[in-house]
From TrEMBL:
<feature type="domain" description="Plasmid replication protein C C-terminal">
    <location>
        <begin position="297"/>
        <end position="394"/>
    </location>
</feature>
<feature type="compositionally biased region" description="Polar residues">
    <location>
        <begin position="251"/>
        <end position="273"/>
    </location>
</feature>
<feature type="domain" description="Plasmid replication protein C N-terminal">
    <location>
        <begin position="26"/>
        <end position="196"/>
    </location>
</feature>
<dbReference type="Pfam" id="PF11800">
    <property type="entry name" value="RP-C_C"/>
</dbReference>
<dbReference type="InterPro" id="IPR005090">
    <property type="entry name" value="RepC_N"/>
</dbReference>
<dbReference type="Pfam" id="PF03428">
    <property type="entry name" value="RP-C"/>
</dbReference>
<dbReference type="InterPro" id="IPR047611">
    <property type="entry name" value="RepABC_RepC"/>
</dbReference>
<feature type="region of interest" description="Disordered">
    <location>
        <begin position="251"/>
        <end position="290"/>
    </location>
</feature>
<protein>
    <submittedName>
        <fullName>Replication initiation protein RepC</fullName>
    </submittedName>
</protein>
<dbReference type="InterPro" id="IPR036390">
    <property type="entry name" value="WH_DNA-bd_sf"/>
</dbReference>
<dbReference type="InterPro" id="IPR021760">
    <property type="entry name" value="RepC_C"/>
</dbReference>
Length: 402
């Protein structure tokens, strides 16, 4: 095989100083590895473990999931399970084969993602004189020359990729822990305020509810860690204040009450009946006495998937949905009083559907609390139905997929 040297892209491909230096550095490192240098980082890796790590560390390299799909398709053409970056690893699939292994991706799209992989330094182009991808073999059938895509840079970056993936996993664990902490504080504060209002406790509970709404306003799945940490600290302080206010409102008899009395109080205060679906996809769900929902739980979750992020174990029943909605409504700035009236007028499940829809529509609704109160007024006049809301969500989803 002829000596591999830095090559310029064929045709319209752009050449740059960075690309030239990357090729030069890769060649020098390969020479060093073949001479026994490099230490623990030997430029080799299992290709599927490496692909998993690339997926986890994709943000570091500035690539998306579809670009990774093209890289995975290229890697699948490598004969060996282990990628050995000490020498060029040339794959030369035809456009048709590459498209098939990329799940039918269009050629123009594939070219764009190939360019992104080159830009990220994960592959090199090894173009022939006419830009075609092929190989030449000697008289014995052994590979002599090959032109196509070189996967050696991917293998040479294995150590860097695995380290980046580990950092990404650590950051993800920390982020999930932070989100969980925010959610737990928010849930517990909301429940204490709701309990105080239901029991008619003395105190500025509506004011505390407004402060809670301010602390959780605008939080979502993409909220930055620093903002979440600041809100978490605020929620911790508010929680201490709310707990102290509730304890201060208790009488001496309540403060010294037995565990049996506490348990009895909890049982007596839990007057809402569980809302369970009759079935899944093709069944309706019970929302209130003699009332049936206009949508199945499965269909609702396809239209409003975001609310599942606020359920401890996912939304598997209407009871789970109502519990998640109880948490989300405070994030949307909806007071416990407005939420209680909505459930009384609509039924728990229908009110939860409204909350799920409000969460999905995000900033399109300027005042979720006012919006819910308006719907509650309609429900009290028997003029409310969730069916138009469901239709609007389906139309919106249809436009998003168009």
């Amino acid at each position: 095989m002829m000596e591999q040297i830095a090559t310029t892209p064929f045709g319209g491909g752009r050449m740059s100083a960075r690309l030239f230096m990357r090729q030069r550095e890769a060649a020098e490192r390969q020479e060093k590895l073949r001479a026994g240098g490099g230490g623990n980082d030997n430029g080799r890796a299992d290709k599927w473990q490496l692909m998993r790590a690339v997926t986890e560390a994709r943000g570091v390299f500035g690539i998306g999931d579809r670009t990774i799909s093209v890289l995975e398709a290229l890697v699948s053409f490598a004969n060996e399970r282990e990628l050995d970056g000490t020498a060029p690893i040339i794959v030369f699939p035809s456009n048709r084969e590459l498209s098939l292994r990329a799940r039918g991706m269009a050629p123009a799209t594939i070219r764009r993602h190939l360019a992104a992989l080159v830009e990220a330094g994960l592959i090199f182009r090894r173009d022939s004189a006419n830009g075609k991808r092929f190989c030449r073999r000697d008289e014995k059938g052994a590979l002599e020359d090959a032109f196509g895509f070189d996967l050696a840079p991917l293998a040479l970056k294995a150590g860097e990729i695995f380290e980046a993936a580990e950092r990404a996993r650590a950051e993800d664990r920390a982020m999930r822990a932070l989100r969980s902490e925010v959610t737990l504080h928010q849930r517990d504060i909301a429940k204490i305020i709701a309990t105080a209002l239901e029991e008619g406790r003395a105190g500025d509970w509506l004011g505390l509810a407004d402060r809670l709404a301010d602390l959780v306003a605008g939080l979502g799945r993409r909220t930055a860690a620093d903002i979440l940490a600041t809100r978490r600290d605020g929620l911790q302080r508010l929680r201490a204040e709310v707990e102290n206010a509730y304890l201060s409102s208790l009488s001496e008899q309540e403060m010294s009450g037995s565990a049996h009395q506490s348990e009895q109080h909890i049982q007596n205060s839990n007057t809402d009946q569980p809302i369970e679906p009759y079935g899944r996809e093709n069944e309706t769900a019970k929302a209130a006495p003699e009332q049936k929902m206009a949508i199945s739980l499965d269909r609702l979750m396809r239209l409003c998937p975001q609310i599942a992020d606020y359920a401890r174990n996912g939304v598997k029943s209407w009871t789970d949905l109502v519990a998640a909605a109880d948490l989300v409504r405070s994030m949307l700035g909806i007071s416990p009083d407005a939420w209680r009236k909505a459930k009384a007028a609509m039924g728990d499940a229908a009110a939860a559907v409204v909350i799920a829809a409000l969460l999905e529509r995000g900033e399109a609704i300027r005042s979720p609390g006012g919006y819910l109160r308006d719907l509650t007024d309609k429900a009290e006049r028997s003029a409310f139905s969730i069916y138009p809301m469901v239709q609007a969500l389906e139309r919106g989803q249809g436009r998003g997929q168009a």
